[in-house]
Amino acid sequence: MVKSSIKKVMATYKEKKFSIIGHSVGCHIAYYIQDEIDPTNQNLRNVICMGTPLGDSPTKLNKGVEKVMKTLKAKQ
Length: 76
Hints:
Elements: H1 2-12, E1 18-23, H2 26-37, E2 44-50, H3 58-74
């Protein structure tokens, strides 16, 4: 659902460049959008991360991100 909604907005405004702002784990979702939805960066101008746990332990962080990604994929 989230992926299709973002793709729809990008298709509607395809002449526009988007910036994605993520906070905390939302930064990982922003990176997912960049990698999975717009890997060639045709629509994305910036991915901005604030207060993100990017410096956290990779094992701890990956478990949390995997859970978020599974939830997002289940809702699509």
